[in-house]
Amino acid sequence: MDTKLVREITDWLKTTDLAEFCYDNNGECIEIKTQEALPQPTQFSCSLTPVCAPAIGIYRAAEKGKNLVLTEGQPIKQGDSLGLVETVSKKHKLTAPVDGTLRVIAAQEGTAVEFGLPLFFIEK
Fold first, then answer.
1. What is the C-alpha to C-alpha distance for residues 86 and 11, in angstroms, rounded to an integer?
2. Which of 1, 45, 68, 71 is deepest in the core (most CB within 10 A)?
3. Is the residue at 99 inside a domain?
């Protein structure tokens, strides 16, 4: 492909309102896309704050001998206990990062969880 031709096409494309251009001449093909042709990420706002598993382990609602009942729709204060994740060597406490309403409970007692897995969603 002739670099002079590529430069001419690029310069010409800048003078138009085209977002992309494809040139094919006897098997020589060039495709040019401007910044406007690139897909833009979707922007959205969400009032839900996830509470994710801090480690790989087993989710427990409460320590042995204690009872913690969580229900969707209940008010939550920052720092309230949401259970814990047991690993081989440690118990990682889960606490609410914000005040709000507990909207989604994805965690189930005694199930294995992965690091970063959302266990709860709190609406601010």
1. 61
2. 68
3. yes
